[in-house]
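Is this the right way to post structure tokens for a design question? Let me know if I should format differently. Anyway, here goes:
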């Protein structure tokens, strides 16, 4: 028998012994699978909460913008020149041009129930409103540099030296923008910290559970060590059992998420501005499947390897 055949024979024995130990210790295996399932549920919830947090923060970011209002006398060509300059900035993601006529129409719609304002507009011979540029930055912290750019001489003055920008609402809304920026950054850091904390706690629970199952077999391990069994031969079945725990717990966890996310789908959609957790689960099923199964297998295998090291010393 060559080395390859010997390896395959040894591997088959290890796998067979692992499955035998899994079924032989039915009660312990069930408890370990349930604990592992709790661990994987926590990991899955971390994935869902991360998606919800990203959606909420993106929605918050989308609500932040600044408007540049131009003097009524500003020509469209000059305004479009500034628009193109803004679009060339790396900090800017989108610039929307609102003409004087569109601004007037929107103003009338906002004050449709105020007849005095509408009557005053009718008395005027010309449109008193100027065109507007609505600017969205890639990150809320970048609005300050965009506002400073607009205030600079090269961007706010036409070639003949006449200032065509009437108002930049960033300076009026600076406190609110800074506050929202701080909230977004704090939420990002808090979400990351909670993710690490919950992942570590869940893995420690799984590790201690698997260590308990190996403790039950410590006498068997000692006997195998005394008769000359190799380290890999002793570790192998326990690693296989740990992997089985992870696979079984992963399958149950994925099946459990189906009714839970379906039940919560409508609630999350109304509460988190269009985020349907059931639709997210279906769209990202392969990604979540990979995360859950790989996490279960790695936690089971690594926990078994670490837990058995203590009993390999005779």
């Amino acid at each position: 028998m060559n080395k390859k055949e010997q390896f395959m024979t040894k591997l088959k024995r290890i796998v067979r012994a692992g499955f035998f130990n899994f079924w032989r210790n039915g009660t312990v295996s069930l408890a370990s699978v349930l604990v592992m399932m709790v661990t994987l549920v926590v990991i899955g919830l971390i994935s869902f909460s991360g998606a919800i947090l990203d959606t909420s923060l993106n929605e918050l970011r989308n609500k932040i913008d600044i408007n540049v209002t131009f003097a009524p006398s500003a020509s469209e060509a000059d305004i479009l020149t500034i628009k193109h300059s803004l679009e060339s900035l790396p900090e800017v993601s989108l610039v929307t041009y609102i003409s004087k006529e569109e601004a007037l129409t929107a103003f009338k719609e906002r004050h449709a129930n105020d007849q005095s304002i509408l009557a005053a507009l009718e008395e005027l011979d010309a449109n008193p409103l100027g065109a507007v540029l609505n600017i969205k930055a890639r990150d809320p912290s970048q609005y300050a540099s965009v506002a400073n750019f607009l205030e600079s001489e090269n961007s706010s003055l036409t070639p003949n030296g006449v200032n065509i920008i009437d108002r930049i609402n960033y300076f009026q809304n600076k406190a609110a923008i800074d506050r929202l920026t701080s909230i977004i950054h704090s939420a990002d850091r808090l979400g990351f910290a909670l993710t690490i904390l919950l992942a570590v706690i869940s893995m420690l629970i799984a590790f201690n559970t698997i260590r308990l199952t190996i403790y039950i077999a410590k006498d068997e391990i000692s006997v195998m060590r005394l008769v000359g069994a190799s380290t890999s031969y002793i570790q192998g079945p326990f690693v296989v059992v740990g992997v089985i725990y992870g696979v079984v717990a992963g399958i149950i966890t994925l099946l459990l998420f189906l009714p839970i996310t379906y039940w919560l789908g409508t609630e999350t959609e109304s509460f988190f501005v269009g985020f349907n957790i059931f639709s997210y689960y279906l769209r990202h099923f392969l990604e979540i499947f990979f995360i859950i199964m790989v996490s279960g297998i790695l936690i089971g295998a690594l926990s078994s390897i670490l837990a058995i090291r203590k009993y390999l010393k005779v």
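Format looks fine. Someone answered above. Worth noting: Strands lie at 66-70, 92-98, 132-137, 165-168. The first helix runs from residue 3 to 24.
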